[in-house]
């Protein structure tokens, strides 16, 4: 940890301060007296905390209506636009960084494609560059940024802020937290991308009413973020949620992890592209090549979706198969964990009903009980911004809710 991180960092130092801030956030407008009742703190303690918070400018006072005695009560609310958070989404193809207010509302974004074969240092430099250009372009004083959250592809040690293994890039052990904190003097939190997305859904998306939630990110890879009793679940070695490596086909192809028949080998974006390219090469009839002017290397999940929308039978078949395999994986998950809700996000989920209908049908057929069969399965409403908002939420969670 950098020694001279002050100012904004101080906001997050006290548990009682977070408690008071969270009550103000949830109530939107509340008096000191009511905060004391809700927080179970004495009025003088609340008064002191509120004074400190007012001094930082993170909350504001205002008067509204008349109380019974005729005096207008003074209410407090969060000054959402007086401080900022930066969220960084590290995907396999590109990095997206966003500047938000204290309610995760995006004010500006930057992105950069990631070149194959880049070094660890080049990768860290890209992150630094994106963060710096957000600060400079938006003319934000960095003492007003309370934290930087990074939602990172691969296995992450969230306590130490280390990217332990990023399979797509072949990187191991990048101390992202230390490196970025050293450059900007802003506290940095690092988490796996699927877990970041799950946190975003819990706070700002379709998961707001859930206590036990699984958010599945289906893009080039397949990962899941698990929320248990309202908290992210990491497992002993930070691999909880490696849903893509659930084995669904005993006789299946070899996976990038070394095992065989993982969900990743039958339902990921990479598999969809691979299968389409292979079958076109052996002469399968489809309009997909026409959509990319014959350039097979330009085929993406979006191309296959577009072909399916135009009634291409092969495209429909490929998405249907991916959906069914995801349905098998999700059935296993429901039988094993019985979550309140499952949210599907990531690029592949954009194919909508071409994937979601066979997925839900499989769960309906195979889950154990009537209740299990009707587990709510929805598409992420935060869409492409989800992981970035999740990265921001990593910081907001420390500000408002330290449980
Ligand atoms: Zn695998």
Automatic annotation (TrEMBL):
InterPro entries linked: ArsR-like_HTH, ATPase_NBD, ROK, ROK_cs, WH-like_DNA-bd_sf, WH_DNA-bd_sf
Keyword flag Kinase: yes
Record's keyword annotation contains Zinc: no
One Pfam family, short name: ROK
PANTHER family, per the entry: BIFUNCTIONAL UDP-N-ACETYLGLUCOSAMINE 2-EPIMERASE_N-ACETYLMANNOSAMINE KINASE, ROK (REPRESSOR, ORF, KINASE) FAMILY
Its biological purpose: Transcriptional repressor of xylose-utilizing enzymes.
Designated name of the protein: ROK family protein (Putative glucokinase)
Protein source organism: Salipaludibacillus aurantiacus
Lineage: Bacteria, Bacillati, Bacillota, Bacilli, Bacillales
